[in-house]
């Protein structure tokens, strides 16, 4: 049910981008919607009709190259996209500033694409053609899709002119960034490298307090004869603050390096990885638990502090 909600919402955003921002402001797009827009700017035929016809023909030819679930969702997306364009295309006469129109077209397109992709569907068109060419000739999917989309954008020079083609390129760039954020930004991951001479204590605290899997890489002793091993851990972005607080409470001299990563799967991201790791019904409960754990850990005296106090 959630996937179909994403699909409908994403299709609406994409259709709004085409009908409200691209059509009245002489902008184009990549792929089949872009081709439909060029036809509209040249002949005044509504993209609601041309996208429906073009996508239906492409889907009919390439249905055997697509997974069954994707075909079913595409059968929902394609007519829904045309329907939304039809009801939105007469709402506005355009934005006086084409640069502003290009920016918002990119934002709406990116949000729409991101939600459609999260639902497991596609917008049809060039992505289907790319799959067909990959199946027949072994052509790489991403590169083929890019070439097909770029060909439509370049053709726009002869229809909407170089200036509005450049606005279109700007909209596509913004759309790509927004799509990446919708697909990955809400679940951003971080890889943390921790150098500490209290490896066992830090590792144990991370596993029990933050519920994460850790890997320890052995290191040679430094010039002072101290062995600082490397702890490698991947965590969701929202736990990073608590991790730093936790490590600092155990070893104030620990050296921490944080890297942004695009994707992490398996291990503690898939299921409970060890008996001490908890699972949660919601992100809110998860954040509340780890904040409490980090706060408690930061007020817990370390073994060295206890010995020092006894002295």
UniProtKB/TrEMBL annotation:
Protein name: Membrane protein
Record flagged with keyword Cell membrane: yes
Transmembrane feature ranges: 44-63, 70-87, 99-117, 146-174
Highest rank taxon of the organism: Bacteria
Localization in the cell: Cell membrane
Occurrences of domain DUF2179 (ranges): 214-266
GO cellular-component term (any): plasma membrane
Membrane topology category: Multi-pass membrane protein
Gene3D superfamilies according to UniProt: 3.30.70.120
Keywords associated with the record: Cell membrane, Membrane, Transmembrane, Transmembrane helix
